[in-house]
Amino acid sequence: MKQVFYVPDRGDIVWISLSPSEGQARTGRCPAVVLSPQAYNARVGLAVVCPVSARIKGYPFEVPLPSGLPVEGAILADRAESLDWRAHRAELICALSPEVVQEILGKLRALLA
Q1: What are phi and psi of 74, to 5 degrees?
Q2: For residue 48, what are the contacts with CB-CB under 8 A and spacing of at least 6?
Q3: At a CB cut-off of 8 Å and minimum separation 6, what does 59 contact?
Q4: Cβ atoms 32, 48 nearer than 8 A
Q5: Full pLDDT tens readout for the chain, 113 residues
Q6: Domain 12-112 classified CATH 2.30.30.110?
Q7: Where are the chain's structural domains?
Q8: Which residue in 3, 9, 14, 77 is a FRET match for 42, CA 20 to 30 A apart?
C-alpha cells in the first residue's frame, strides 16, 4: 500500500517545528502560513512561509486571522522566509480563504515593489 504524505500548499496554516540550534528567536511548534504553491514545495522541498503571531499589534504588515480558525493572531507578511518543510515537520492545521491569501501577498508585494 502506497503511503500518502502531506505536501504544504498555498494558503495552508501549518505547524512548523523550530529548534534553538537554528538561530531562531522562537522555538518549539509555531504556526505559519504557506505562500508558495504545492508544486514548488513538492519539487524543491522548500516552502515560503510567513509566521503567525498570537499578538496583534496593528502593524501595517500584519494580516489578522479570520475568527473561527483553530489558530488566533496575525500573519506577519513582512517576515516571509523559505524553509525546508520536511525538516521543520510541517503539519496542516487548516486552510485560509483565497481572499486572505491575496491580502498577505498584496502586503508582501507592497514591501518588495
Answers
A1: -135, 145
A2: 34, 35, 36, 80, 81, 82
A3: 74, 76
A4: no
A5: 555 689 999 999 999 997 655 555 566 899 999 999 999 999 999 999 999 999 999 999 999 999 999 999 999 999 999 999 999 999 999 999 999 999 999 999 999 98
A6: yes
A7: 12-112
A8: 77
